[in-house]
Write a structure and sequence with these properties.
alpha/beta; Nucleotidyltransferase, domain 5; 2 domains; five-stranded mixed beta sheet; 12 strands; binds adenosine monophosphate; binds magnesium ion
Length: 330
């Protein structure tokens, strides 16, 4: 029986989770926030440094374990913001050294996919829709492959920028979702799917112009934005399902908190006899439990670094999903 800790620090969230035999037994996090938007990497890293010991203590308490019971420490190695990733790495190394327990380097995007298992998915396609990332990924022929992705910004950043143009605070996603419910008229917007990829910059420019035109209400534009952009995401997810011949979709990332996106994903799946899974919110957003969850799987297949090897590990800010060497799956 193994207890693996997971440390998440790729962007604005510092989180620590514990997993024992595939069961999440703790998941604590704290998020760096700003008044007006945009994440300042050095400030976010400072936040992580300030909260890490406290979060660690709370996670141990929630798990009901003492630190001596920890068998391995998994951490988000990338992709992410370098200063933030470094805090997670240094904290993990410190605990690893003190307890003399191995480190397990985990890819953040793959963790979003694999945590889908706790909701019952076995071999899914992940629609990962977060602030900085937008990808459709799945495991196929020995690798986690990216079937589609954004060609410019992440969908969450796109929504937040739209919200900022509209004079709404950060993060814009939840507020836009509320406004969209009041929207009644669909306003035509560009629909940009290129092969299996999506792009948002043209839609943003178009929306910015429409925001200045009194003809359109913010409610209608929010509604139309969601309908258009979520249809693009769901279309690429559907193509990926068809392409790899799978019948399970898992949602991940902060934008997947949006009920309209969840509904559209579910409908698409129903129409093609597939199933849509959406982890509960604490596992959907950035969190330490998903790092611990994938970390335990990797740990059990022997991917662990001790002693000097552990202390020599580094962050991988630009690690791509398909670069991850997979030896823990058959
Ligand atoms: P993440 O990067 O995964 O932590 O997700 C953060 C992003 O999710 C931000 O861009 C938020 O605006 C966005 N977000 C959060 N809740 C919602 C929502 N209900 N609808 C749309 N976007 C959301
Ligand atoms: Mg994430």
């Amino acid at each position: 029986m193994a207890i693996v800790m997971g440390v998440e620090s790729t962007a604005h969230t510092f989180g620590i989770g514990f997993v024992r035999d595939g069961k999440v037994i703790a998941n604590i996090r704290d998020m760096y926030t700003t008044e007006s938007g945009g994440i300042i990497p050095l400030d976010s890293a400072k936040h992580h440094r300030e909260v890490c010991e406290k979060i660690y203590g709370e996670a141990l308490y929630e798990a009901g374990i003492s630190e001596e019971e920890i068998d391995g420490i998994a951490f988000s190695q990338g992709p992410g913001l370098p200063p933030c990733l470094l805090v997670g790495l240094e904290f993990s190394k410190k605990i690893s050294k003190r307890l003399n327990k191995p480190l397990v380097p985990v890819n953040h995007c793959v963790a979003h996919l694999e945590i889908g298992r706790v909701t019952g998915a076995k071999d899914p396609v992940l629609l990962y829709a977060s602030g900085a990332n937008t990808q459709v990924i799945s495991y196929a022929s020995g690798k986690y492959r990216v079937f589609g992705e954004t060609l410019d910004t992440g969908v969450g950043n796109f929504i937040d920028t739209f919200a900022r143009y509209a004079g709404i605070g950060f993060p814009g996603g939840p507020k836009i979702e509320r406004l969209a419910k009041e929207g009644k008229n669909y306003v035509e917007l560009p629909y940009v799917v290129k092969g299996m990829d999506v792009s948002f910059s043209g839609i943003l420019t178009n929306l910015r112009q429409k925001l200045k035109n009194e003809k359109y209400s913010l409610e209608d534009l929010s509604f139309s934005m969601q309908e258009t952009v979520f249809a693009m995401l769901v279309e690429t997810a559907e193509r990926a399902l068809a392409h790899v011949g799978k019948n399970e979709l898992v949602l991940g990332g902060g934008v997947a908190c949006n009920l309209r996106l969840q509904e559209m994903a579910k409908k698409m799946c129903e129409e093609r006899n597939a199933k849509s899974f959406c982890p509960e919110k604490p596992l959907l957003v950035d969190n330490g439990a998903m790092i611990a969850y994938l970390g335990e799987i990797m740990f059990n297949s022997g991917i662990k670094f001790s002693g000097k090897e552990a202390q020599d590990l580094d962050i991988k800010p630009r690690q791509r999903t398909d670069e991850v060497e997979v030896i823990w799956k058959d």
